[in-house]
Structures are given as structure tokens and as C-alpha cells.
Amino acid sequence: MKTGRNAPCPCGSGKKYKKCCLNTDQQTRKKHFDHEGVGQPPSRKTDQNIPPATSGINIRPYALAKMCDPKKKHVQQMFRLYPELKKNAKKMITVSQIRSLTTQQLIEKIMNHGAHYDEEQFLATCEKMNSAWDVAETLWPEQLQSLEPNVSDISGLGACVLWERLFDEKKLTRVSLEMLDDWMEKGYMLLDEDRFQACRIWMQVWETFKDIYDMAEMSIEQIDARFNGSQSFFNWCQDFEMELINASIDAKEFAELGVSFLDEFVTCFADEDTDFVNQFKSTLGELYCRSGNQDAGEKMLTDLIRQYPDRAVGYIGMDMAVSIRKMDNEISALEERLKILEEAKNIPVIDGEGYDLDSRISHLKEMIEDLAANCQR
């Protein structure tokens, strides 16, 4: 049976399968395939139903510049494969070059290309807009439309870095979309070395998305279409959910953060794809339990089962909730979990294979038998 990538890991760690044993299992399968000479394993499916792509690629200039920065590892790898590209890249103005300048040097560089910089005017314009690149287009339209090499990039990227630097120094109240994109990226970069700090940064990202967009009136697809960053809002929401639940296993703080994020998320996007929203509701139920509010968590999961009795997500969530609940008799706890999963099996749920339901039931039965045998000794 195949375990769904977003389902709890069958090993019992409490983490999502895709962040626990998935990579190990894939490597095992790959070795088997290679050894037998059968070929490569099938490609992985995406986690959820991805919103339909719009025609063409639409990405903000700042995000595109970051992706093409020669200091990025993937760009350096591209240079090794195609050395001729490196020659052209030397003529580019990059984000890292702009960041290497002091604030005064950056302002002088912008003004040397004919732009008028007035700090009071710049700050006032930032407070009215969402994008630093749009600020540059408003204040310095000739430079942004210039066909001279690098003039547009110096003005546009310069505005992005200036907004970021003046944000704390001048106590701006608005975060630019470019800063938001940087925070998202910083969280991804921190995941391996400090998941806790990554989650704290991503909570700032969520709060900023709420400030910039009217989430109660917009769909996830509409937000993605307006954000146009180097990261997808849709995918990031799933990644944040996953990292919060993994972090919550080690620290209650992140269960509480997760409850805050997911409660707002399922309220804002209740009309999105049912399976997608139900997965978030199941995670919310689990995080309620991990935060110490067992009753609220189990109620949410009971309601989810009642509303969607033919879907495994509520039963799997309740199984996890019972495993979190403190019980004096371990065998009784395991038997209660087994009853929940057998109920899902008997319905039967239509997606049990994706959650490896049969394997979970077998595993619980083995645990009960082992404990019973130990008690008789």
C-alpha cells in the first residue's frame, strides 16, 4: 500500500511522511529498481490539487533578478554547464551587487542615472504602495523605461533594497512584496539548520499576507496571481503547515502558532478545494491537541468525520489525537485508535490506500498483541 505524502508517517514519529521516511523509502525503491534493471520508479505526485496555471510566466522583476543572481548555487551550476553564459552575466546588475553598496552609495548610483531622490517623497510613496518596484516606476518612470543597459535594473532593484533598509530605520508601517518574498525564501533556507526560527519568520510572512491582501474576499489562486513572487503562496501554505506540525512535536510554542495560522487559514479559505481544506482542518485538530486543548482538537476531528465519513483524513487525524491524549492504560489507548481506523475501513473510505490504512491497522494490532503478551509474563 502506498502512503500519501501528506499523511502522518507510518513509523509513528508523528511527522508527515514526506518529511520523515519518504526520502529513505524512495532511495530504497531506487536501489531495488536499479539492481533489478527495471528502470526508475514513477515520478512523485504533487501534494494537493494545484490551481490551474495562467498562460505564460508572470514573476516580479525583483524575484526574477534574485533567481538569476550569479551568486546563487543553481546559477553557478548553469555556468559550469554553459560557460558562455557567464560572460554575459558579468554585464548584469545583480541583487547582490546592489546589496553590497552602502545606502549613500546606492542613492548616488540611482541619481547618477538621472533619477531625483527625495527621501521624504520616497517614504511617503512606499506607505501608499505594496511593491518597491512599483514605487520606482512611479517616482522614476524614465529610468524604469530606459533602454540603456542596466538603468532600469539599478533604479528598480535600488528601490527594493532602499525600502528594506529604511523599513526599520524610518519605522515604515508597510512591508514591500519584495521583502515578503525575501522572508519566505529565508525561511526555506533556514529549515535544515533551525526549523523553529524558520517557522517564526514564516508567521511574520502570514501576518504580512493578511495586511497586504483581503483574504476573506480572495481565493488562493487570486493571491498567487497578484503576489507573483519566487515562491508560490499555495505551495508555501502547505509547507508552513507541514513545518509547524513537525516543530510542534518538539515544542508546544509551535502548536500554538499552528493553531493561530490554521484557524485563520481555514476560515479565510473555507470554499477552496475540499480535500485541501480538510487536510488543514485535520492538522488544526492535531495541533489543538498538541497545544494542550485536547477537547477542541477531538471535537474538530469528530466533526470532520461526521461531515466526511467516506474520507480518511478525519479518522487519521483522530487516531493521532488519541495517541497524543494522556491515558493510564496503553492497551486501551491502542484499542481506541484501532477502533477508529477500523471504522474508516468498514465505511469504507474512498482514499484509504493513500493513507496506508491497512498497514496502520495491522501495525496497531501487532502493538496490542505485543503489549498483551508482555503483561501476561
Order of helices and strands: HHHHHHHHHHHHHHHHHHHH
Q: How many strands, what sense, and barrel or not for the largest sheet?
A: none
User: How many DSSP-defined strands?
Assistant: 0
Question: Beta-strand percentage?
Answer: under 5%
Individual helix count: 20
Q: Span between N and C termini?
A: 34 Å
Oligomer: single chain
Give an overview of the whole structure:
The chain has 377 residues and is mainly alpha-helical. Helices cover 65% and strands 0% of the residues. The chain is built from 20 helices and no strands. The chain has helices spanning 22-36, 61-67, 73-81, 83-89, 95-99, 103-111, 119-126, 132-139, 141-144, 151-169, 177-190, 195-212, 220-227, 233-248, 252-268, 274-290, 294-307, 312-324, 330-346, 357-376. Helix 6 runs antiparallel to helix 10 (151-169) and helix 16 (274-290) runs antiparallel to helix 17 (294-307). The longest helix is centred in the C-terminal third of the chain and has 20 residues, at 357-376.
Question: Could you give the topology of this structure?
Answer:
Blueprint: H1 22-36, H2 61-67, H3 73-81, H4 83-89, H5 95-99, H6 103-111, H7 119-126, H8 132-139, H9 141-144, H10 151-169, H11 177-190, H12 195-212, H13 220-227, H14 233-248, H15 252-268, H16 274-290, H17 294-307, H18 312-324, H19 330-346, H20 357-376
Helix pairs in contact: 3-4, 6-10, 8-10, 11-12, 12-14, 14-15, 14-16, 15-16, 16-17, 16-18, 17-18, 18-19, 19-20
